[in-house]
C-alpha cells in the first residue's frame, strides 16, 4: 500500500513538472525570451517562485536547441534575521554560478516609510535599480524575474482599481532605462502549481520579513477577491489571463490606441447578418517550435 502511494505521488509530481516545463517553454518561445548566446541573470529572492524559475530554467538549459548561460543573483537587503548562508549553500550544491549583492535597502525603507504603511513600492524600486546596474556589470543580456500568471492578473486589477489604468506585467519588457530586457518565464504558470512544486522539491524557502508579512497590502485584497471568484467559478483565472493576451483596442476607449476621430461608415460594404459567435474549446496540440525547445518527453 505504501509503495502504491509513493508511486502515485511520483507520477503526480512528474506530471506537474512536465506541465511547468511545457508552460515555461511555451512562454519563452511565444515572446522570444531567451536567444542563442544569452546570459540570463536569474533573480533569486529565496521564495517559492524564484526557486521554481531557476529549477525549470536549468532543466530546459540542458535540452534547448540553443545555448544560453544562467547566473543566479540574490540581493541581501540586510533585513534583520536574514539567513545569509542559505542561498550560497544551496547554489553551491547545485553548481550554479551566483552572486550575492549586499545593499542595506531595509534601513532606507524603514526610515522613509511610516510605520504601518506598505513598503513594497519603495523596496521594489530600490531593488530594481540595484539589479539593473549589476546586470550591466556582469554582462547579462536578460533579467529573469519570478512573477507568475496570478501575479500578472493581480497587477491588472491593482492598476484598474487603484490606478485607473488598464495594464499588467508583460511577460517581456524593455526596462525604462532602455538598457535591460526583463523576462518572466513563469508567466503562464499558476501559483497553485508553483506552491505544489516548491513543496515537493523541498526548496529552502526564506520568508520576507519586510513586506511579505504585511496584512494591509492592496495586492492581498485583490488576491482574496480572485481566489473567491476562482472557488465560485473554476477556470475564471485562466479566462482572465486569456483576456490579457487578446486585446481589441477598438472596443475600449483609448484614443491613442485607436483612431475613433476618423471613423466613417462605409455604405458600400456588403450587408451581412450579425450572429453571436460562440467560444470553442480546442484540444491542446504541442506546437513544433515549443517541441523543439523542450524534450519531446515533457509534452507527452
What features would you describe in this structure?
- By secondary structure, the chain is of the alpha/beta class.
- The protein contains 10 helices and 6 strands; from the N terminus they run H-E-H-E-H-E-H-H-E-H-E-E-H-H-H-H.
- It has a 6-stranded mixed beta sheet, with helices on both faces.
- Strand 2, helix 3 and strand 3 form a beta-alpha-beta unit.
- Helix 6 packs across helix 9.
- It is globular and about 70 Å long.
- The model has no long low-confidence stretch (mean pLDDT 87).
Per-chain topology:
Elements: H1 2-30, E1 39-43, H2 48-63, E2 69-76, H3 86-94, E3 98-102, H4 105-112, H5 120-138, E4 142-144, H6 149-163, E5 172-174, E6 181-183, H7 191-201, H8 218-232, H9 236-245, H10 288-293
Parallel strand pairs: 1-2, 1-4, 2-3, 4-6
Antiparallel strand pairs: 5-6
Helix pairs in contact: 1-2, 1-7, 2-7, 6-8, 6-9
Features:
alpha/beta; 6-stranded mixed sheet; 300 residues; single chain
Amino acid at each position: 500500500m505504501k509503495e502504491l502511494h509513493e508511486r502515485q505521488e511520483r507520477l503526480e509530481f512528474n506530471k506537474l513538472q512536465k506541465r511547468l516545463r511545457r508552460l515555461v517553454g511555451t512562454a519563452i518561445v511565444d515572446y522570444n525570451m531567451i536567444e542563442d548566446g544569452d546570459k540570463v541573470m536569474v533573480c533569486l529572492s529565496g521564495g517559492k517562485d524564484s526557486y521554481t524559475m531557476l529549477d525549470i530554467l536549468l532543466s530546459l538549459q540542458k535540452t534547448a536547441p540553443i545555448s544560453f548561460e544562467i547566473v543566479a543573483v540574490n540581493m541581501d537587503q540586510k533585513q534583520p534575521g536574514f539567513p545569509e548562508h542559505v542561498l550560497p549553500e544551496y547554489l553551491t550544491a547545485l553548481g550554479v554560478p551566483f552572486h550575492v549583492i549586499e545593499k542595506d535597502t531595509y534601513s532606507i525603507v524603514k526610515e522613509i516609510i511610516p510605520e504601518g504603511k506598505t513598503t513594497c513600492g519603495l523596496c521594489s524600486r530600490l531593488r530594481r535599480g540595484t539589479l539593473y546596474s549589476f546586470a550591466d556589470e556582469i554582462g547579462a543580456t536578460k533579467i529573469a524575474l519570478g512573477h507568475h500568471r496570478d501575479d500578472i492578473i493581480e497587477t491588472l486589477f491593482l492598476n484598474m482599481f487603484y490606478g485607473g489604468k488598464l495594464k499588467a506585467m508583460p511577460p517581456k519588457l524593455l526596462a525604462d532605462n532602455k538598457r535591460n530586457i526583463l523576462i518572466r518565464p513563469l508567466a503562464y504558470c499558476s501559483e497553485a502549481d508553483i506552491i505544489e512544486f516548491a513543496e515537493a522539491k523541498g526548496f529552502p524557502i526564506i520568508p520576507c520579513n519586510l513586506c511579505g508579512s504585511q496584512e494591509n497590502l492592496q495586492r492581498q485584497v485583490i488576491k482574496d477577491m480572485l481566489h473567491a471568484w476562482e472557488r465560485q467559478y473554476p477556470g475564471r483565472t485562466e479566462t482572465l489571463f486569456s483576456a490579457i493576451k487578446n486585446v481589441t483596442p477598438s472596443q475600449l476607449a483609448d484614443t491613442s490606441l485607436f483612431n475613433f476621430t476618423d471613423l466613417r461608415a462605409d455604405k458600400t460594404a456588403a450587408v451581412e447578418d450579425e450572429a453571436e459567435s460562440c467560444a470553442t474549446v480546442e484540444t491542446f496540440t504541442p506546437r513544433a517550435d515549443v517541441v523543439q525547445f523542450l524534450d519531446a518527453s515533457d509534452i507527452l
